[in-house]
Amino acid sequence: MTPDPLMDSRDVVEFPPDKENRFHNRVIIRNHTSIFDEALAEDGYKVDMDTYKPTRTDETEESASSRENLALTPAELRNLYRFPLIRRRITQQTGKGKIHRQFVLMVVGNGNGLVGYGQGKDEDTTRAEAKAYAQAVRNMDWVERFEKRTIWTEMDAKLGATQLIMRPRPVGFGLRCNPNLHQV
């Protein structure tokens, strides 16, 4: 079997006997260089430098770069209403202890039938809100309304033990629902 030069890379360091150690030693280091170093070098990265670190993109950065895919202009994005419905501290129990983060559930809309919701989690509340806003903008959907104020027909849905019933109502009837749903 012949070694593959790409997959079986190795460096050998020989230590001859000396006054302190009478034995001959050989250290073999296998696969310590990444197969992607050559591709990174072609792109202009200097992987041999100590300051090189791979870049990690954040969800908010990715959503900022994907705004050109949205049908909304930057002016329409600025005019969206934002309602953080729930802000709470959440805890994940691991084998080594508890990890605390912030959770934000946000509703975004233009007040004219366009609405979306998103949730974000992060150690910092502002970053969690930014993630929730980015997800809410991506999840936006159009709701067709009758006379720009109510829904066209009765709708109902059930998820687990929660039953949601929506009915069209006349002018001045108001809303009878949870305060979080009132924001929607």
Automatic annotation (TrEMBL):
Gene Ontology cellular-component terms listed: mitochondrial small ribosomal subunit
Organism classification: Eukaryota, Fungi, Dikarya, Basidiomycota, Agaricomycotina
GO biological process annotation, one example: translation
Family to which this protein belongs: Belongs to the universal ribosomal protein uS5 family.
PANTHER family (alphabetical): MITOCHONDRIAL RIBOSOMAL PROTEIN S5
Keyword match Ribonucleoprotein: yes
Pfam family, one: Ribosomal_S5
UniProt entry tagged with the keyword Ribosomal protein: yes
Subcellular location: Mitochondrion
Predominant place of localization: mitochondrion
Gene Ontology molecular function: any one: structural constituent of ribosome
Top-level taxon of origin: Eukaryota
Keywords: Mitochondrion, Ribonucleoprotein, Ribosomal protein
Domain S5 DRBM: 80-143
Residues passing through the membrane, by range: none
PROSITE patterns in the cross-refs: S5_DSRBD (PS50881)
Name used for this protein in its record: Small ribosomal subunit protein uS5m
